[in-house]
Structure formats: structure tokens, C-alpha cells
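step 3/5: co-fold with zinc ion
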Amino acid sequence: MNKWLLLILFSIVCNQSYSSALVELNRSEDFLIIKSHIVCFGTEASSELCTKISSDIQTLWSTPSAQIVFEGQSFEVRFEITSEYLSEEQSFELAKGNRDPRINFIRIENSAPSQADPYDDEEPLPMDTTLYSYVHEIGGNAGFYIKAQVASGVSTSSHEFGHLLGLEHPPFYQVPENPHIMLPRYTYDGDSVRILEGIVDAEMRAVHPLNIASLQIVKLGSQYVLGFLNNAIFDLNGNIRYKKQKDNQ
Ligand SMILES: [Zn+2]
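step 4/5: write C-alpha cells
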């Protein structure tokens, strides 16, 4: 996981501009709305599943009704998550010209062959890593979701959404009785694997006030945003088919 994290951090430094969510501030009534739009595509995507994903995200992230302090003012944080199902080609065309900070491109498949043994170590990991959802970059606007995880449960899509908003896994953790949403299903530090499942049901993960308070709102021109746009489009195997060039950002 560490080499991925370093790559991710490097990418954030190099690419940070634009966003993956729009933040609308209501200063007079002390609340803000985080607006994201989930575009689903891929072999296992459907309008119904995409609606479930956006609904799950909105429900879990809205549950704590937590506060965030921004520019010296405390805001109640609300979420408005919409969705739409598009073909791969429609998603591809939309990504090429996308400047909408709300849009996230989510491919949905049964497995991600490109994620097989991502650490290339002598000892194989004790789980099939092709069956785990992931995002292209922390804070980016592209994800590859495994249907079995997002169709039957509610926590995976909300965990990955946290990544899209810019949140990372906690570096070290004890699994608490009430795990927060950014606890991973597994971690690997180069020596050992820790798996959440078997210790606590990953579906017990919930958005806690600390997750909300950790969001880093950025002012970009006249807009307030979270994360950045890389407009990456995954192919069927989980590799990047298209990504906006840095000099266009
Ligand atoms: Zn994660």
C-alpha cells in the first residue's frame, strides 16, 4: 500500500486543480452542500445500480449531520449526490471535455484483472485483490467498483466516495467497535496484511463526524471544491484508458 500511497501523494501534488465535488456555502444559515454527480458505466452498470450507489452515498454521508470549520465559520455539512448511467463511449466523450467539478466517472464490473497481486511480492496476498473496489487517485474523480460490493452492501461505495473527496485510510489503526468509513477492508504494509473482515463486518463502517471534519475544501476561482478532476476512464480490466493531460489542467 505504501508505494501506492506515495504515487498518490505525488500525483496530488502534480495535478491538484479543479475538483471532484462542488461545495456551495450558505454563510447566512451556517450550512454547506457538497454536490457530486456519479456517472456509471461498464458491463455491470445499470441505471438502477447507479441510483442505488448515489442514494447509499448520500444516506451514509448525510447521517452524522456533522460540522466543518472553514474560513473561521462552522458549517453543517449536507450532501446532494445525483447519478446517471451512460455507455462507455458516452462516458469517454464526456470525460474528454469535462470541466464540471461534480462529475465522477465510475466503472462497474465483476472483477478488476489489473489489480491481481498489485504488490508483486513472493508471497501471494491471502485474498483475491481483483474483487476489491478502488479509485484511480485519492481526490480524483475516477473509480472502479466491483458490482458484488456495491450492489449488496452500502459501505464500499461510500468508502470509495471518501477517497474521491480526498480522504485516505488511517495510517495505523485498531479496529474499533464502531469503525469509521475510511477504514479499509484490508491493508498491506509490505510485510503483513491486515484484513478488516473477520474482525468486524465491513458493512458496519459508518461516516463519523471526524470524516466530515477531515475534508479539505479548496477555493478555485469563484468556486469551492473538494478533490480534483483527472477525468480518468477505466477500461474493462481496470487500467486507465483515458486521462486528461496535465498541461490541460
Ligand atoms: Zn480505501
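step 5/5: annotate
Residues 159, 163, 169, 184 surround zinc ion (CB under 6 Å).
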